[in-house]
Batch of 4 targets.
Target 1
Amino acid sequence: MIKLRLKRYGKKFEASYRIVAMQSTTRRDGRPLEELGFYNPRSDEVRLDVPAIIKRLKDGAQPTDTVRRILEKQNVFEQLKA
């Protein structure tokens, strides 16, 4: 199963995350199938590749709870329904 989840990178205590599509059995910082966006929790900066995320969701990818909240804040699910 393909999941949309966060991949951690950055310095210790200054983590940032990439939103990626990965197999559910792959380790957290393993090689992703595709990088779909960026999330910085310290400044709440979010950059998303919305067309690629919508394509993955239509293909059956399941977002984790945290990624789902980020996508809801950015109104991606409304674009998916349209």
Target 2
Amino acid sequence: MQSALNFHRDARAVVGNPVLRAGFRGAMDFLMAKRAAQFPDEGAFAELRAAGEAIRRYSLARLPDLLEQLERNLTANGIRVHWAETPEEACALIIEITAKAGGKLVVKGKSMVSEEVELNHALAGAGIDALESDMGEYIVQLAGERPSHIIMPAIHKTKEEIARLFAEKVPGVDYTDSVDALIQIGRRVLRDKFRETKVGLSGVNVAVAETGTLCLVENEGNGRMCTTVPEVHVAITGIEKVVEKLAHVPPLMTLLTRSATGQAVTTYFNWISGPRRPGELDGPREVHLVLVDNGRSGAYADPRFRATLQCIRCGACMNHCPVYTRIGGHAYGTTYPGPIGKIISPHLLGLEATAPLVTASSLCGACGEVCPVKIPIPDLLIRLRQQSQGNAASPLIPGAGAGRKRLMATAMGLWSRLYGDPGLYRLFAWVATRFRFLAPSRQGAWTDSRAPLKPAARTLGERMADRR
């Protein structure tokens, strides 16, 4: 069960682990440098970014119509479309499709939405094995962990840790910390499974409404194997991933690959427009698309939060976030960590399960500056903080007020009263300066890493009066 309620405890554990912190920070610095190298011209980047934002805003403005158009054209192409309002419905649909195909194994390409709905657990409960074929996902699956990054799931692992994991979990494998050898081991295991399975599953980067086309980008080739070798291909994605035209895809993919991994172009770009046609020798005989809502319609319906759905899942906001780069993804406790996780998880899980995340930010603005589609993440975080405190509550996000603490609310109420009354404020300032020796040496979390606060001997007003 996803929950961020242990965020502060888990974050402290990572901060106290110098090896993990150093490895994570080195990886993030590397990714930041690679991204920067892909956007040397600030003017050109600004133009491309503006185009990406315009495409995503236009697509969201027409989302209901585009989803209907997408369904019509996918159906005309022979792709079966399924709608899932909740994670449970999404999992039930995929289990049903797999059972009808006689499948006992689902080989999966990379899909964060399948992580979001916890598909692997649901498949296991139905007696169906799931095997991740993305190398990073395969590693974290062997380790029994969640992905720590939406693009690089195993970025928190060292090659030595992966070597020990393979030696322990993969039959017939001896310890080796050679990266090339480890990749070959994973490839050998997965290739055999592609031949055995009847059902392959993938995510979707973009769905094109005018042509009924599913677009999938990747670097390893496992996505192409999942979508072509098995008899049945199941794609799963959120309802926000649709665009109107094929012409809208290139700008978004240019931004995605450069922002995510610092690549000018991805290794594989898959266009999926239907199952195997008569006379064709390969490809699946069935293609299914599961469109998942899971709180997205709530974000869409509220104009204050609709920009959350512009995300193209590049991970650039994580790589530049001073919080994420120090604690990694697991501390968040949710599928989507980092800045994007802080603004999307409340819509998916409610504020009761995610209240600590909305305050886990310095509001430095780095995430907003690097977002390739210009999501105003800091502004959305401030609005979610208001929601968490029960102010300006929206019925579309469950759990308003979940982050409100009685002591803090009382203290802020008293502070507001003092600041609102000049006479009371002057009296408070006089008492605070004259009795400053009574200030406690322990002041909650503040003094865990800072010196205690102590009023000055005289107020600023008194000092300025002396200078006249």
Target 3
Amino acid sequence: MVELLEKMMLSGLGALALSKSKGEELLAEVREKYRLSEDEGRALLEKLQSSAQQGKESLAAAAENEVKRAIRSVGMVTAEEHELLERRVVELERRLSLLAEVADPEE
């Protein structure tokens, strides 16, 4: 769990580092150092930002899976599972009520 939090923080810092202004600063440095054209530099920046976004999405999915695993390990259910079970109980109660009416029509 600590490793996951560490990865999330590092990913967040990486995403911040590639914010638009920081990205443009990095782009200017790289273009000057490696003599890239404007188009090459922009393509590189877009690729880096895309990679950072994909990493962020991947980390979010991994975090969600880890939380679900932790919830299950302590015997809890997710909100979706709870809602499903609640709907099933309501439906079963409705069916039992109908069966009781059929079995004893005088009531």
Target 4
Amino acid sequence: MLKIGDSIPNNPVLDENGNEVRLTDFAGQKLIVYFYPKDNTPGCTNEALDLERVRGELTQAGWKVIGISGDSPASHGGFKLKFNLGFSLLSDPDKALIAAFGAYGEKKNYGKVYLGIIRSTFLIDEQGKVVKVYDKVKTASHGEDVLADIRAGL
């Protein structure tokens, strides 16, 4: 998993409209990049809704929210519309960018071990460097947790 001070990877992904995007396209902006397993699942929906709830305050503080999963652009488009999400959702079906961040790996659920997307969030400065990593995320309060850290100056 990327650590504080690491530069972000530049793998291409697709936005919810099917357009190719690279995180370096956002150079000069502060980013909150969060990785989540799947659109329209309870935990992922809670996390997205909590980030959306505080998005205005995050934006005022100079931060842009971007969600990334392996779902298709069409799935992301439907998810955004269904829950009125005002931030970008990027599609990485081959999980190249997700793996480059270290957000893909072994997971355990009910005693079963499998490979999957590790729910995690990275705060990235204007130069494309990681300034904070959340590798343990509480979905229902994640937006509030990130906002509190940003208000506290990280």
